[in-house]
């Protein structure tokens, strides 16, 4: 919504409640599921008389609010709490967008939504939430100067999770969420998270027991109804090696293994039926031998030998078939038997 429209909404509201001639300050807030306004004013007039505030909220304010909602086509306040808003919609509206506002302002806005609102106990868990809003906290590569000096920067991401903005130092942001401050908070959060773990574990168990043959899509949908979001960590081949659970109701984040051995990615996958592309890739395929010769006919023998050489030299067969205990077959050393002296 344009700033001019919001200014007019504020002006219209203040006139409606009888404060149109009073000095007031309006500022916009984006730290909730919707942009909103805060207004600061005084009930003392220029001549020193006082504006009566008795039942102002129930009478003039409520009536004016309804009129403003109708005039400007706003979402009506009455009945909003009767149905919980899907968390995905709320997050989608609050996602940072590169170029929409100054990068520093966008990052600060998202940090206000996350840093002090959620309980996380590692930088990976913090990034799991920040990533939902297209922001990432980066320590730098291990061994780098920034990593060794415990520095921290924040950047904006695009919808594919790629970094698209310049780095902003944590110390340069309004909240100054430096690594030292975050680590102290994470240490406290480790204990604060524990009472909420039972709710997440119970939600997972109930979802998996309720359906005879549950799959990941069913699990994700069942938990979403309870405001619990599931994030998967996958390899390029689609192999799922980790899960993160974000409880948006209790404002806590857990890696699956932190909830207990039964809630690690490996154990949950064993309880679910996965689509083929998500099944774990075998790291040690069965050993395949070259096909036998079909006959001793010279022509057939020549064709078979050519086929054997082709399959033997194929890189995919060589690397995939003849690897035993991590060592290519051709490089495996064999011990020579010593001949017995007569």
UniProtKB/TrEMBL annotation:
InterPro entries attached to this UniProt entry: Endonuclease_MobA/VirD2
Alphabetical list of Pfam families matching this protein: Relaxase
Domain spans labelled MobA/VirD2-like nuclease: 4-74
Entry protein name: Relaxase/mobilization nuclease domain-containing protein
């Amino acid at each position: 919504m344009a700033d001019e429209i919001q200014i007019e909404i504020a002006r219209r509201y203040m006139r409606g409640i009888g404060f149109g001639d009073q000095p007031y300050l309006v500022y916009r807030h984006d730290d909730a599921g919707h942009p909103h306004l805060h207004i600061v004013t005084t009930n003392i007039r220029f001549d020193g008389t006082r504006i009566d505030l008795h039942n102002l909220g129930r009478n003039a304010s409520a009536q004016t609010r309804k009129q403003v909602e109708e005039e400007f086509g706003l979402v009506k306040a009455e009945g909003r709490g009767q149905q919980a808003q899907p968390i995905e919609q709320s997050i989608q509206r609050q996602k940072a967008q590169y170029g929409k506002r100054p990068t520093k302002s966008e990052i600060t806005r998202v940090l206000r939504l996350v840093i002090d609102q959620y309980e996380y106990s590692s930088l990976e868990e913090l990034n799991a939430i920040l990533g939902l809003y297209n922001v990432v906290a980066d320590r730098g590569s291990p061994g780098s100067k920034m990593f060794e000096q415990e520095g921290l920067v924040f950047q904006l991401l695009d919808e594919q999770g790629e970094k698209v903005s310049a780095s902003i130092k944590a110390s340069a942001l309004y909240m100054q969420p430096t690594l030292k401050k975050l680590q102290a908070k994470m240490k406290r959060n480790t204990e604060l998270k524990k009472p909420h773990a039972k709710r997440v574990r119970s939600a997972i168990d109930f979802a998996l027991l309720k359906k005879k043959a549950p799959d990941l899509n069913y699990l994700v949908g069942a938990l979403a109804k309870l405001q619990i979001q599931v994030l998967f960590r996958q390899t390029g081949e689609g192999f799922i090696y980790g899960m993160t659970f974000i409880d948006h109701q209790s404002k806590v984040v857990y890696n699956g293994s932190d909830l207990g051995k039964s809630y690690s990615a490996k154990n949950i996958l064993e309880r679910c039926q996965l689509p083929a592309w998500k099944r774990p890739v075998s790291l040690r395929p069965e050993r395949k031998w070259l096909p036998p010769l079909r006959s001793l006919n010279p022509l057939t023998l020549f064709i078979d030998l050519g086929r054997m050489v082709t399959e033997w030299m194929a890189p995919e067969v060589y690397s995939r078939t003849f690897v035993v205990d991590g060592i290519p077959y051709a490089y495996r050393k064999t011990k020579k038997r010593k001949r017995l002296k007569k």
